[in-house]
Amino acid sequence: MKSAVETLNPTRVRLTVEVPFEELKDSLDAAYKKINQQVTVKGFRKGKIPARVIDQRFGRGAVLEEAVNDALPKFYTEAVNEAEVNPLGQPEVDITELKDGELLAFTAEVDIRPTLEIPDYSGIEVTVDAVEVTDEDVEKSVEQLRERFASTSTVERAAEEGDVVTIDLEAKVDGEILPDGVADGVSYTIGSGELLDGIDEAVKGLEAGGEATFTSQLKGGSAEGKDAEVTVKVTTVAARELPELNDEFAQMASEFDTLDELKADSRKRLENMKQFDQATQAQERVLDELLKLVEVPMPEKLLEDEINTRKHNLEHHQLGQMGLDLVKYLEIQGKTEEEFLAETKEQAEKGIKTQFILDELVNKEKLDVSREELTEHLFRRAASSGMSPDQFAQAVAEGGQVPMLVGEVARGKALAVVVEAAKVVDSNGEVVDLSDDEDEVETAAEAVEAVTGEAEVSEDK
Fold first, then answer.
1. Average pLDDT, whole number, for the chain?
2. Start and end of every PPIase FKBP-type domain (predicted)?
3. Contact at 8 Å (CB) between 262 and 253?
4. In 3-state terms, what secondary structure has residue 377?
C-alpha cells in the first residue's frame, strides 16, 4: 500500500491511498463467504457455492463492493498512522479507481487536531473576590436555620405578610372555569412568591372565610400565558412562630451546646463555601486568560457538530424536562433565534479550544491519571447524576466512556498546573494561595466540564 498526505488547511487533510489488488485477497475471501451465507443456488449446498458461480449469478461487481467496504477501514487506518495525523470524526471517502485484479485507489478527507504552540503561561495574573464573611452573613445563615424550625398556629385575625394561609382557588378564562383551574386546600406562605402574581395583595387583609378576585397571567397548565380571573378563598390563617435565638435553640437545631458555637460553625462553613467559590473563580479566569494566549484553528465540521449537539441537548433534554420548547425558551430569555445561535457558536468554539489546549498541555507536561484520581472523579460524577457509584461505573463501562472520564481528569490536572503557575490576587490586593486545595484537580475538572459541555472531541482512526 502507498499513501500520501496533503494539507488542505491547518485543520483538514486529504489522504491519497493506492492498494495493490493482492492486498484485497482477505477481504475478497470474506466477501465470497458472506455472500455464500446469504444466497441459495440450485444444485449447490448453502455456503458451498463456488466463486465463479457467484460471479456469474450475482456479478463480480457485488463481490468487489463488499470486499472494498470491508477493506477500506483497515487501509484508511494504516494511512492515518503512516501520515502521523490525529483525525477528528469520520472521513469523507471517495474511491477514485478500482481495477479488478490490478488496483484500488481512494482519497479520504478528514478534520485533524491542529498543531498548537503553548506559550509561557506563568505570567498569567487574575483577580478574584476576597473571602470575607461578615456578621450580617452569619446572622442571615442562622436566621435561615431558624426559619426551618418555625411552627404555625391558627389565629382569628386578618392575614398578614409571612402568615401561612390555606386557600381554595378557581381560575376562569373568558368566563369559563378551566378544567385544571380548580385547587382546594392549598397551603401558601404570603410573600413567598411561589404561586400566582397578585395573590399576595388579594389575600392580605382577609380572615378565614373571606374571598377575593384578581387577574393574573397563568404560568402553566392548559391556558398558560393567558390572563385569568382568579377567585381565592381563605379557609384558615396561621401565624408562623420562630424559636428564640438562645442556647436551647442551638441544642435543638445542631450538635452544638451554645448559640456562640453554632454561629462560629456557621462562619466557618460560609468561609469554606466562599473559598471554594474563589478557587472556582480563579480557575475560570485563568482558563479565560490561557485561551487568549493560544491561537487555535477551528475545524469547521467539528464546530458544526458541536453546535448541533449543544442545540439538541438543550431542546430534547433540558427544555423537555421543563415542558418547554425552543420557541418558548427564547421568548422567556428575550432572545432571537439568531442571538441564540450566535451564543451557542461562541460557547462551542470556547469548548473545543479548551479541549485542544488542555489536551496539548497534558502531553507537554506528561500528566498521567492515577486510579485513585479516576475513582474519585467517578464518585463525584455518580453523585451529580443521581446514580450509585456502581451503577454509574457500569454505565460508563458499557458505554465505552472510560477514556472520556480519564480525559476530564487529565484536563483538570492540566488546568490546575496553569493555575499554580499563575498569580492570583483577591480584590483586596492579597495574593491567594490555592496550593493547599485538596480538591484542586476535581474542581478544575468541573470548571473545564462547565465550558466544554457534554460533547467530547474524539479521535477516530
1. 90
2. 162-215
3. yes
4. helix
Torsion (CA) 183, 189, 191, 194 in degrees, nearest 10? -50
Nearest of 267, 290, 259, 241 to residue 417 by alpha carbon: 290
Q: Could you give phi then psi for residue 70, rounded to 5 degrees? A: -75, -35
Report the distance separating Cα 54 and Cα 44, nearest Å: 11
Q: What angle do CA 430, 436, 440 make, to 5 degrees?
A: 105
Helix residue spans in 39-174 (DSSP H): 51-58, 60-83, 135-148
Residue 193: band (very low, low, confident or very high) from pLDDT cuts 50, 70, 90: confident
Chain segment 350-378, per-residue pLDDT in tens: 999 999 999 999 999 999 999 999 999 89
CB–CB of 127/427 below 8 Å? yes
What are the pLDDT digits (tens) for 128-171? 999 999 999 999 999 999 989 999 999 999 999 999 999 999 99
Number of neighbours of residue 446 by Cβ within 10 angstroms = 18
The CA-to-CA distance between both ends of the chain, in Å, stands at: 17
CA distance 385 to 8: 42
Nearest to 31 by CA among 76, 65, 82: 65
Q: Is 150 left (phi over 0), alpha (psi -120 to 50) or beta?
A: beta
Q: Which of 294, 301, 295 is nearest to 12 (CA)?
A: 301
- Residue-level pLDDT at 183: 92
Return the half-sphere exposure (C-beta side, CA atoms, 13 A cut-off) of residue 46. 5
CA distance 58 to 15: 32
3 state SS for 422-449: CEEEECCCCECCCCCCCCHHHHHHHHHH
What pLDDT band is residue 460 in, cutting at 50, 70 and 90? low
- List the one residue out of 424, 441, 428, 445 whose CA is nearest residue 127: 424
